[in-house]
Structure formats: structure tokens, C-alpha cells
Amino acid sequence: MSLAVSAAAPGTIPAPSIEYSQIAPMLVVFGAAVVGVLVEAFVPRGMRRPVHLVLTFASLVTAFVWTCVIAATSSLFAKGSAGHVAAMGAVAVDRPTLFIQGTILVMAIASVLLIADQSSDVSAFAGQAAATPGSAEERTGLLAGLVHTEIYPLALFSVGGMLLFPASDDLLTMFVALEVLSLPLYLLCGLARRRRLLSHEAAVKYFLLGSFSSAFFLFGVAMLYGYSGSVSLGAIASAVGTNSGRDTLLYAGLALTGLGLLFKVGAVPFHNWKPDVYQGAPTPVTALMASCTVVSAFGAVLRVFYVAFGTLTWDWRPVLWVVAIGTMVVGAVIAITQRDVKRLLAYSSIAHAGFIMTAVVAASVSGLSSSLFYLASYGLTTVGAFAVVTLVRDPSGEANHLSRWAGLGKRSPVLAGIFALFLLTFAGIPLTSGFTGKFAVFQAAIAGGALPLVIVGVVSSAVAAFFYVRIIVLMFFSDPVEDGPEVAVPSVFTGTAVALGTLATVVLGIVPQPVLSLANHAATQLFVR
Amino acid sequence: MNGIPWLTVAGALPLLGSIVLTLIPPVPANSAPGDVEARDKLAKVLALAFSVATLAWVIVMATRFSTSGPTYQLTEQYSWIPQFGVHYALGVDGIALVLVGMTAVLMPVVLLASWHDADRGATRRSVKSYFALMLLLETMMIGVFEATDVFLFYVFFEAMLVPMYFMIGSFGEGPRQYAAVKFLLYSLFGGLLMLVAVIALYVYAGDSPATGHHGTFLLSSLVHVALSPTAQKWLFLGFFLAFAIKAPLWPFHTWLPDAAASAQPGAAVLMLGVMDKVGTFGMIRYCLELFPAAVSYFKVLILTLAVISILYGAVVAIGQKSMKRLIGYTSVSHFGFIVLGIFALTSQGQAGATLYMVNHGFATGALFILAGFLIVRRGSDRIEDYGGVQKVAPMLAGLFLVSGLAGLAMPGLSTFVSEFLVLAGTFSRYKVAGSFAVVGIILAAIYILWMVQRTTHGPVSESVASFRDLRARELWAVMPLIALIVAMGVYPKPVLDVINPAVKATMSQVHVTNPVPAHPAPAANAAHAPGANSSHLKGNQP
Question: How far is CA B486 from the centre of its chain?
Fold first, then answer.
């Protein structure tokens, strides 16, 4: 019927103009994901993994190179333009977005390296996710050597969603991106090969809480639509201050969308999912979530708060102050009691989200640029840290309990040394990337008048240093445990991820200027409106 | 910039040594014990060679320093992180130069004294890591004295903790993990508070016309930034707390005795002798020069803390049963003297305090190293386990007494000169503080002599009977320090000549002049109310 109408009156619904070249990086990743699904359907089982590997890495690398090319050469930024809103106002192409997308792609490549690693045991992923844990069906599946190669297209869909999430210039696109990035992650979380019940619990928890937060986000979008008559961020920004009679809608919408975004970031009080999910998910997937998802979610937070609510700074800043303080303190304090290395890194990730929030509340160019730098440096170190976690194994899989890590420095000094370097980075010791990042965000916060936030920040850093240092004590100063975990010889895949993390940590600590100026350059004109 | 980067090379030599040591390949697991020993020996000799080369370089560098030249000499400056206005800027004034010199002298000595610290006992530890960590620490310590950019200073100040943390935690004795973590957390906490002040200083500099509205960390620009008295007070507190923890000043000292007791003697010498000096050095370089108004506001409080440190450290030292803890507490007392000299704000007091830093490094270094030799022989650091060492090992006991006397500031030994200057400088402005501090000297006599008496005199205890006297290596480690203590006690002029211009520059930055003796006015100064808010101390005009 409708088809007939549009055929009858050509021109009444104009074809949307899509600037394909500008949004190509996302299209490449989504396209590869779709092809990956077809691979699952048509390629013989034995061939799937190599095909997926080529497809996944090729698409991610292509997307990264393309992003760099757009950032370096595109005429979008000629004559001091902040960028361009492509695809009929749905996708923003501006410098901060390109920086975030480039960062996500690098981290995604590193995380996919971990996902693809099958050398040390069989794989981190379950052979048959649908089989009941401990059942005969599971055992036959294991014996038959079944593997889920669907993880590659799932990861690609998720990465694609992450690329789109911070780039969305209207809230509906943002919601779609949020779902596209989340749904594959829910699935991936439940695919751990070892300790499958924990993994299932993580998946269900993440799914339920994530759905709630998505619903809140959508509800907020509806309110904002009611307030401004549009879902476009720019339109909401220009409506603010003009429709004074409907401020309730505005504030309710602000609160609900903010809630949905802060959930993805893992800010207090929406952080409860993080430890359980990080612990239960297969470690490579945790690496993906802890790096790429956090970067993407912060990108979206920055865009929404800086573009749509940029003139409401006085209204949201006190709230975000409280959130930032809570996030830093809760993350740092609760981490002290953790005994599982993945849970500990989850709480550390919460604390770091709090540190980034201190720069977000500055709502300034330096706030944006320092957040960008912090995200890049923190994400790469995180991938490296989780890569190390995958290597410390005992016969039942990864040895995640901290007591098993005692004396690791004596068994395997190089790996333990690298992990100690990552921990010192998280603690913010100078000459590591963590210090440069912390310095950048705290400097932006003080310049923005948030001195009390920074004082809370450094006190939390001191508290956080305690548990980072305790792991170092455990690894280097304690005697090895009896029949302690083996350290697997890293394969090329994991080795590359560890090396990338180490390199980024050292380089961004000692010569941070190139990346700092890149971030600063990306932030000078803020987001396109 | 005069072609040769003197200061960079001085810091880079030990770093190079550290890297070379790390690159020594490990011996295969199934090789004979002799191979391991040969490898360890190579590491030790290499480490010593690098530290001696550094010392030689620093000596040549010192001859290039002109006492009549500008305040900061041998300067180097390159942009490091332009985004934040951070420079790799080095330069030394007289104070920094003598401290760099002290570091370079102590290093070979400590390496010789710790020759067997890592491979002694039942559990062999990695010898090359221990010596590589020591050299790495030397790089950081030299860097922290040379930096003239606040950011660079902070980087060295914090990074310095990491090698020391591993030296205590991996190679120490007793409750080493506890001591290492306590040491790190205390220092890190202080450092992070300082970080807030550093960033705030940077933000203020960015708002100031004196820097052309460009944020900077260069000390030479920051001294021109006009700060409001309130801002000065807060920033001063941020810096001062970090330095007071580092120094350590009562009541921030509680980490020190634990760390000193758990560290190997060599590591403890570096900690007490050099690292902790960064605290007092920072007070002169940063607290005084950058925040003169805050200095006049807080000085009475700080002088009070300093006097408490002197007396408290001394009294608690008397009661100690362990030699290492005793020496740790004497250092709390000595650092009280240094802080007293700094905040008395007289040129005598400051020159004395700077000289005190150097002398304390040598005297406490010698005392701790000799105590270490005793502990190695007996396997215990409890004073009651010794007795009559004098009869068995006269050389060891004699040198122990000499370095002990240096610790209590015996005339003729270097520490007397500095303690006298500090007390004279304090007394000319703060009679009450000076009077209390003098009591510290009497207490020092008690704790030192009583310890020496209990360990080296009396009947020879059974376990001491088999002691052998100092070996050649041990003698080589201690003799340079004893020689320096005596030489600087007799003729301190060359060092004072280097220090004095720098002290004068600092004093003029704080806008202080010395009180004129035999004039009624100094009493009025001493009664200066803590609420006085003027940036000019009302010293008498000469």
C-alpha cells in the first residue's frame, strides 16, 4: 500500500542523502559483521575461524585507516569548520568523534586479538553455549571440539555500535547504537568456557540491568522530544531556555537520559553490574568492555552533556559532582576488599570513570581534551592488563583469585614486571601514561574551579594505590604458593596485545606530547552542533 | 647551555649502568654455583664502576661551578610537554650542587657496603636487580636535586619511591612488606597532595600576567607569579605536607623507623641520607621561594614542630632496643634541626641547615653502615646482644665510636659546624626555640654514647667473641666517609662558599634580612604573632 503511494507520487519522500565516505569506517565494520553472519551460514566449519580472522582484522584495520584519513585530509574541517552532521542529521563527523572512534578501533583490534587467541588452552569461550553446564551434552560438545565462531561477528556488531554511539547526533540514533553495542555484549558475556554458571549469571544480570537502563534512556528521549519537539541534540540545545513552561519535561528527560548513559559508564550509583559482569564474562570480552565500551560511553556522555545540555551546565554540574565523588570514593574503597583480580580491575575501572568525570564536569575544551587523552591511555593499559590476566592459568582455567598470584614475580619476572607496570600506571606513578592522564584531567578540573573534586580525587588515588600496591607485594615480596598457576607462554595474539599495552603505557608516560596535541587538536572546537 | 650537558650526563650515567646491569643475561638454571657467583660479581663490579664514574663526573662538574656566577648554573632547558608548558629544565645552585655531590659520594660507598646484602643468607635474591635498583635510584635522586621545573621535580619525587619500595619490599628484612607498603603509601599520599598544589600553581601561573598568561612550571617564571596570601597558604600547605612526610617531621615521621629497620643498611643509608633530604631541600627550594607570605604565616608553627621533632626523636631514640630503629629516630631529631635552621630565616641558619644535610648524610651514613657490619657479624640488631666488641674488633668499634661522635656533633667533626650554625642562626631570632633545641644536643650525647657503650664496651659477650675486624672492602666503604667528616669539620669553608650565594638568593626571595646582634629589635621578631599576614618579615635593616 505505502509502496504504491510512494510509487504514485515520486518526490514526496526524497531519498535521504548519505555521505557514505564520511561514515565509511562504521559501514565497513557493520558490513564485515553482516558478512560474518553469512560466513557462519555458508563456510564449512573448519574454515570459519581463519575466514573470520581475516575478515575481522581487515575490517577493523580498514576502518581505523579510513578514520585517520578522514581526520587528516577531509575538507570537512576546512576553514575552521567544526565538522559536519552526516546522514540527514543522524551522525556527526567531527574531530572529537574521530578521535574517539580511532581509539575504540585500536582497542578493539587489541581486544579481538585476545578473543582470537586459542593457543594457551583451547579458547576462553564455551564450545556450546546452549548446553547446560555440567551436562552430558556439554561434555560431548567439548570432546567434539566445537567452538562458537559467532563470537567474531558478534564482536564486530558490538564495535560498530560503539563507533556509532558517540557519533550519534540525535537521540534515537544514539538509542539504536546503544542497543547494537549492548545486545552482542550480553551474549558474549555468557560464553565463558570455565565457570559457566558465573558467566551465565553475568550475562543475565547485565542484560536485565542494561535493558532497564536502555528503557530509562528511551523514556528520557521521549520526554526531551516532548519538550523540544525534536530528538536532535542541536534542536534540544536551541530549545533550552525558550520553552520555559515545560521545564519539568526537560529536567526529567535530562535525568533519565543521563541515567542511561551513566549506567554504561559504570558511574556510582549505577555501577553494581560492573564487578559481576567483569568477573563472569570471558576475560577477552571483559577487556573489550573495559576499554572500548567505556570509551564509547564516555564519548556519548560528553556529546550529550556538551551539545544538548551545554547551556544547562549550572543545572547538571552539581549532580555530576556528586556522581564523580561517589564514583571515585566507592570504586577505590570497595576495591580494597576484593580478592579476585577481575573484580578488582572492575572496581578500579569504576574509580577511573570517576577520575574522568572530574574532567567532564569542567565542560571546557581542556576538559574534553583531557578526557580524550585519559580514555586513550587508560583503555590501552586496561587491555594489556586483562591480556596478562588471561595468561596466568592453572589446570581449571584462569587463576583469578589473588592468593594464587603470590610469588608470581619469582616464577615469571617479565610478565609480573609488566603487570606491575600496569598497576603502577593505574596508581598514577609518574613516567607512566596514568600519571599524564591524571595530571591532564585534574588540571582541567582545577582550571574549571573543581578543586574539592580534585582533592577527593587525589585522596581516592592514594586509597587506590593501596590495593594496586598490594598486588605488587603479593607478586614480588611473597613466596610462591604450592602448585601455583602456570604462566602460559603468550601466543602471537596475546603477546601483541600485551606489547601494545606496555608500549602505550611507557610512551604516553614519557613522551605524551604527540597524543596530547592530537587530543587537544580534536577538542579545540568541541563537538559539531 | 655550554655544549656539554653536565647535569644530564650526571643523571644518565647511573641510569645507563642500571640498564647495562639489567641486560646481563641470566645464567642457565643447571649451571654450577660458581657461574652464578661470577655473574653476580660482574654485576657488582659494573655497578661500582658506574657509580665511581658518576662521582668523577660530578667532581669535574663541580669545578665548573663558579661561586660568583649566577644563582643557577650549568642550566639546560628543553620543551618536554608543550601542552602543559612542561620543560626538561635542569640547573644547580650551591645547595643543589652540594646535595648532588653528597649523593654521588654516598653511592659507591653504599654499593661497597651492600656488597653481600643481596646474596647473603638462605634465600638468594637477584643480585643484579638489587644493584640495578640502586643505580636507578641514584638517577632519580640526582634528577630531583637538579630539576628546575616543578613538574620535572614532581616526576622524580614520585618515581624515586618505586625503586626504594622494591629495595625494602624485596630485599629487606623482618616485616619488610609492611614497612615497604607503609613507606610507599605515606610518601604517595603526601605526593598526591603536592600534586594538587602543583596543578593549582600551574593554573595560577596561566592566569598571571607575569608568565604572559601561559601556564608554566619553570621555577624561574613561577617566582614572578603574584599569588594572593590565601592561595599562598593553601599551596604552601600542599607542598609542605609532602616535604614534612618525606623529611620526616614530627608528627609525620611514623613510617621512618619501620622503613629504616626493615631496609638493608645500604638502602637505609640512601633513604635517610639522600631521599629524605629531598624533603628539606624542597622546603628551601619550593616552600620558601614560591610562597614567602605563607612562610611568615606558618613559620612559628613549623618551628614548634621542628623543636618537638628534635626532642621527641632524641628521647624516643634513647629508649630503642634495636640499633637500626635507634638510628632512625636520631634522624628524626636531626631533621628537626635542619627544619629549624631553614625556617629560622637567617642566613646562618640556612647555610647551617644545608651543611647539616650534607653532614648528616655522611655521618648517619657511616654510622648506619658500621651498624650494618655489626649486624651482619652477629645476625641481630638488638643492642643487648652485643658487648665488648672493642676487645675483639678494635677497628670496627673505634670507627663506630667516631661516627657516633659525629652523630652527636662533637667539635672537630663536620656535624659540629652545621649544628652550631643552625643553633646560632636560630638563637639570633628565636631565643626560646633555640634554647629548647640545645637540649637536643645533650640528649644526643645520651643516645649515642649509651648505645656505643652497651655494644662495644663491657665484658665480651659469647656471640661477639668470634667477630673478625673490618675487611678491606668494608674499610674502603667507611674510610672515605670518616675522612670527609673530619675534613669538613676542620675546614668547611669550600662547601660553605658554594652554599652561601644560594642561601643569599633564597633569603632575598623571601624578603628577609638577618637580625643585627646586640640590638633590641630581634626580640620583637621572635614575638611575631602567627597571624601576621605581611609578606615582609620585619627584620632589621643592617
Answer: 20
